[in-house]
Amino acid sequence: MKAILDDMPVRGRILAAIVLLALAAAPFVANRYLLSVLTLILYLAYVGQAWNLVMGFCGQLSLGHALYIGLGGYVAALFWLEFGVGPWIGVFAAMAVAMAFGAVIAWLGFRFGIEGVYFSLLTIAFAEFTRIGFDNMAFTGGAGGLFIPYEEKRLGEWWNLRGGQWMYYYIALLLAAGAVTLTAWLARSRLGYQWVAIREDETAARALGIDAFAVKMKAMLISSAMTAVGGVFYAFYYNTLFPSQMFDMGRSIEIIMAPIVGGLGTVFGPVVGAFVLTPMGELLIAATERLGFNAPGTKAVFYGAMLIVIIMLRPAGLWPWLARMLGVWERKP
Amino acid sequence: MSTLLTVAGVSKRFRGLLAVDRVSFEIESGEIFAVIGPNGAGKTTLFNIIAGVFAGDEGAITFDGERIEGLSSDAVCRRGIGRTFQLVRPFPALTVEDNVVIGALLHRSDVAAARRHARDVLARLDLFDKRGLTASALTLPDRKRLEVARALATEPKLLLLDEVMAGLRPTETDRMVAILADINRERGVAILLIEHVMRAVMALATRVLVLHHGAQIALGTPDAVVRDPAVVESYLGAEAVG
Ligand SMILES: Nc1ncnc2c1ncn2[C@@H]1O[C@H](COP(=O)(O)OP(=O)(O)O)[C@@H](O)[C@H]1O
Ligand SMILES: [Mg+2]
Known about the structure:
Number of domains of chain B: 1
Order of helices and strands of chain B: EEEHEEHEHHHEHEHEEHH
Number of strands of chain A: 2
Distance between the termini of chain B: 30 Å
Number of helices of chain A: 15
Largest sheet of chain B: 6 strands, mixed
Largest interface: A-B, 20 and 35 residues
Number of helices of chain B: 9
Number of strands of chain B: 10
Distance between the termini of chain A: 19 Å
Bound molecules: adenosine-5'-diphosphate, magnesium ion
Shape of chain A: globular
Number of domains of chain A: 1
Radius of gyration of chain B: 17 Å
Strand order of the largest sheet of chain B: 6-7-8-3-9-10
CATH class of chain B: Alpha Beta
Helix content of chain A: over 70%
Largest sheet of chain A: 2 strands, antiparallel
Order of helices and strands of chain A: HHHHHHEHHHHEHHHHH
CATH topology of chain B: Rossmann fold
Oligomer: heterodimer
Strand order of the largest sheet of chain A: 1-2
Structural class of chain A: mainly alpha
Shape of chain B: globular
Strand content of chain A: under 5%
CATH superfamily of chain B: P-loop containing nucleotide triphosphate hydrolases
């Protein structure tokens, strides 16, 4: 923690404190709709950060991170619905299951040299197969979905993730802030340097004694566990789980947008990306609905357009550029 | 002196081409040993086999009393062999210092300690003032130095250097020769050197192996090797001697 602060110039610390305070105070001024958008932003910043560890730092393009959202959400929901075990415990089971899947994908990919595009295809395939599996499994509700009932009497049970908008907002804030802190710490750790070395040049990294398999495996394990926590949050926030939504390719794309737009392999990029993208996406959807043409592909087209703009104008993402403009982040040489 | 590296009957075939043909030699600990030969002679391939990039088709390699042929490149490095790449491979987006920090992290888990060690190594390689630059911004001679710095930061017992003098001006070559001689003397690091710059080979090497079409055509002291008629004919040419 101290090392992270040491790396930040004073202006950066002030800005971080202001943003954090503003976010902590937001529920007192924001209306319900605004708070729900902020919650979504923080959730996307969180899962974006989880994905950023694998892709942004370790350079392995997973296009199937919806898998861990889905597994996390379903496992915790089933623990709650079937055994009455609350999500604060269920989350550990969720992480364990997601990590097991992540480990199998990593093992197949990294042990057998399934690299680059083929690794990405492998991650998509796993998410899709799992979706089909859940579609056809009776005890998870199949394609008909799984529903966490809304119970008036449980509304204050924050320890069971039952509560109102405020509670979900603050949990999302905690998750996002925690993910940023964890990422900042990892980025300055030996493991973080090893990840970046692999990303930059795996052959050279191995010539410096880095066990590429172990290092990439760690990235997948940490990321899948973190993403599963996001899935638990998602399940108890929205209360409905459909395989076609939880494991969907579109969800995997949604996860990766914020870090790409904000800046891959940066600590604050996913947060900045989520704050830029999500409101624009929400506005766009509101506008098209208002105008009456309710086209289902609107969001996908919007993401596509944003990608093109960002890659053309700021290929390293918004945050590195923004940080330079504001003079708030510099890494000591 | 004890034997550090033994290469015994190592061969490598690329489809039809016999790139390395039953090469055998030994390196004593603390020795500077050079491999020379024309382009395409198989020098880099020999390095890659020792460093574990790929396995040879036959032969045995013993390092520090342990058989290492067939080990992966990271496992070879962890046993104490550092290498540079003839076609340099810096981590392009990282600073010069962070490139070397990654090497230094091999035997240190604390990043601050690795950074201190990296700075020492950078100072030795005359790269200290450029430590804040992005590696992709370096000139080729500096990238070659960075290759050496990064490999040296892993604190190897044996350093494999693949044409690190290529493209250097004569004064830069002399400087590099002095740096390598210092490293060798002070830390007892053995060096296996692939080099075309004969002036560097003559100044540094205790023994020289000459490869030609994959096969070794001479092995001996620098003075003996440059007078060997087979070497003069196949590689050096009359004017290169002396
Ligand atoms: N990976 C490879 N695949 C096929 N042929 C190779 C490969 N690496 C080297 N060669 C061939 O092996 C021969 C020896 O190459 P190399 O070891 O690079 O020579 P040197 O380093 O002595 O110039 C050359 O003919 C080269 O074309
Ligand atoms: Mg070569």
